[in-house]
Design brief:
elongated, five-stranded mixed sheet, single chain, 14 helices, two-stranded antiparallel sheet, 3 domains, alpha/beta, Nucleotidyltransferase, domain 5, 383 residues
Amino acid sequence: MSRKSKREYLKTLLTRYLKASKKQKQVLLDEAIQITSYNRKYIIRYFNTSFKHSTPSKRKGPKTKYTPHFVAILEKIWIACNRPCSDILKALMPIWLPFLKQSISIPADIENLLLSVSTATIERKLRPVRPKYAPKGIATTRSGSFLRENIPIKTSSWNESVPGHLEVDTVAHCGDSLAGDFIYTLDVVDIATGWNALVAIWNKSEIAVKFAVERIEADLPFPILGWDSDNGSELLNRLMYKYFSERPEPVIFTRCRPYKKNDQAHVEQKNWSRVRQLLGYRRFDKQKLIPLINNLYSDWCLFNNFFMPSFKLAKKFHLGDNGKTRRVYAPLLTPYQRLLDHPEISDSAKLFLRSVHSNINPVMLKRKIDTQVSNILRIAKLP
């Protein structure tokens, strides 16, 4: 009997072997040994291996709750919320779900899962669809030599738990070249609450920056107490120094150390998540785009300040002498929620913030923002 014939015989016998009882299997094995002259253990291994390959493998353990339908809805919510990290996505679920249900069909069982799903599960389910961004841009900060002695480097003298202490930076929309004129974004973030304000300006002259600061200050729900900039000449100049020092209650005007971006970690992070993630590294060299971008920023800041939770470091301490540091973060809240919870914010300001919040639908606002971005990018490409 040839080897091929023996294999064909065993394949025929496999069907009978799988359905047989224990005693019947012993008889079938004796028969197979007699016909093929194979070792008993070899025939058993052959049957077992053939059975495993002929049937699909099943997941061990209980059946998963997170079906493809759940993952599809989770992906839609993630995109609608501007693709946040898994921690922030979990924190904003209770805030966003009432609005998302108006535009996305979410069954009751999946809604319960969305509210109870862990951060690790969100990360695992979104990993295959999460796009990877690795853009690089050009730094345009040039050192401002004036007033370095008058404007101190920021130390621990600030009370950063009180709203009003701001970090500020400029973001260049120059594309791949610094030649010619183009638009900048003035980015301001409050350290205590994460409240963010953005204004687009043409180039970065002292006067343009001052007008942008005046516009931001008029819209802030709290007074400016501290102003920390980098060493760029657009922010470190006589005009800005005079603006903050010649008032009944002068603002603490400080600067970071030269070439130390971590001194302004709050605003540097917002440069990416609030400006680059929205408009990218494209070149905007048309002045007519400034009002369009500022209208976009008005809606974008409402979206982020009222409906996007953010991290806030509660405390940090060193673990022994091994050089490791442990960071403990406060619960994820939106800047709006932090302002409502803060005792330094007046009741009238809180009442105004609540009225603004009650009139915003974040899903509709996000759609409006997407339309504005598409329009801006279309005009930027025109000759």
